[in-house]
Amino acid sequence: MSMSIHDFPAYRGVLEYVCLQCQARYPQDELLYTCPDCGGVFLLEDSRQESLKELSGAQWRERFDARAAVKRRALRGIFRFYELIAPVLDEQDIVYLGEGQTPIIPSSPALNTAVGHTVAMKNDGQNPSASFKDRGMACAFSYLQSMARANDWDQLLTICASTGDTSAAAALYAAYVGAPLTSVVLLPAGKVTEQQLAQPLGSGAVVLEVPGVFDDCMRVVEYLADNYRVALLNSKNPWRILGQESYAYEVAQWYDWNLSDKALFVPIGNAGNITAIMSGLLKMHDLGIITALPQLFGVQTAHADPVFQYYRQPPESRSYSPVEVKPSVAQAAMIGNPVSFPRVRTLAERYEQVAGDGSFQVVQVQEQAIMESMLLANRHGHIACTQGGECLAGLLRAKEEGRIDHKTTAVLDATAHSLKFIGFQDRYFQNTFAPEYGITPQAQWQNRPETVIDPEVKNRLAADAFAREAAQAVVERLGLEGKED
Description:
The protein is an alpha/beta fold. The protein has helices at about 55-65, 80-85, 110-115, 135-150, 165-175, 195-200, 215-225, 240-245, 245-255, 270-285, 305-310, 340-355, 365-380, 385-400, 420-430, 455-460, 465-480, and strands at about 15-20, 25, 40-45, 105, 120-125, 155-160, 180-190, 205-210, 230, 260-265, 295-300, 360-365, 410-415.
């Protein structure tokens, strides 16, 4: 497998849909989301992956590090890890909009002191549509583009249910790729922020609102995918999972492929991202690219916590049940029946077999803690959304319960840009949360603009007099001292 780092990879795998329930296998050249035999969910596996061991872990590390500097467009984003993601795609089909390669920002000393732990945030809100969903969409749309070309389709409708981020990403990538792909998104009416609603509308998608919550939208989309030729783009789509594995590869590369002293915190939501991260970590470990797995924490709000409820039970008697969700500031996590839960259960078992008991855990956090953790992070220079706040709250909870070694670095997944969820910050500052959120704003976290000078006073003053009087008001507010002669 010798090649120049500037060449598009020559390796081609053989991907198969593998049902996690009945173990049935299907070829990758079909649009499949659930097993035709039993209805189970799929993971995609490369049946040729063992051949990748012809290169040592060190050689793979060297290859991926060198590729990070390559300017070839199809290798610039998540596909610089091509052999690990979807090594069946031709270069002409790969879609790249600048996704991936998001930075990990070490927290300031003051935040580390406040938290009592060494913290870093991976700012996935710096993806093109301002969320981590772009990783999965880049892979899913590359696959769909290859399918449309191979089958000479003149039209293919893409569809997803969303709490906001998925719809924004799907609509953006569909708009870029264009015909024959078009985009329709289903949103829970009144449950999406204005900023997130604006994104698919701006990209020209057909936006349909459904009464209820995300789970209601998901049921509609699943019915359509089962009975009509549409491309489902939720994380039930295993091609999405492949693309989101890039998060794990990037974290490992950022830390020079040594994750032995790291703990990763990931919000669970629909469970696609934590599935992908586990899958990517296990894949790297199997190939010797990393030699130790980090501790991995899934985080759920108490308002939507079915995975937490499952793992809090004794291992020998665990039983999974969906939950009825309550309103949450972590809107992307407000899912009572994650479609990827079977993947989590399967991969968590594999993960603990390799890394030991306690290497995978789930913590539950309160809404108040999510909001105040987001504010704490952002007051120290981060751009975390409420899901990023959920991760920081998860770290604090794990510390409180003695689940994490104080010597580790906690890498938190800030899944989206803070501006997508800025309305929740405004509600906190103005104390306008509805009672069902269970959030009581505390004065030390509130911040509102202050009037320097009354507009009527300004109107009575000449320009110079206004400047002096307004400046004096600022001086008094800030306690400024004049310059010495």
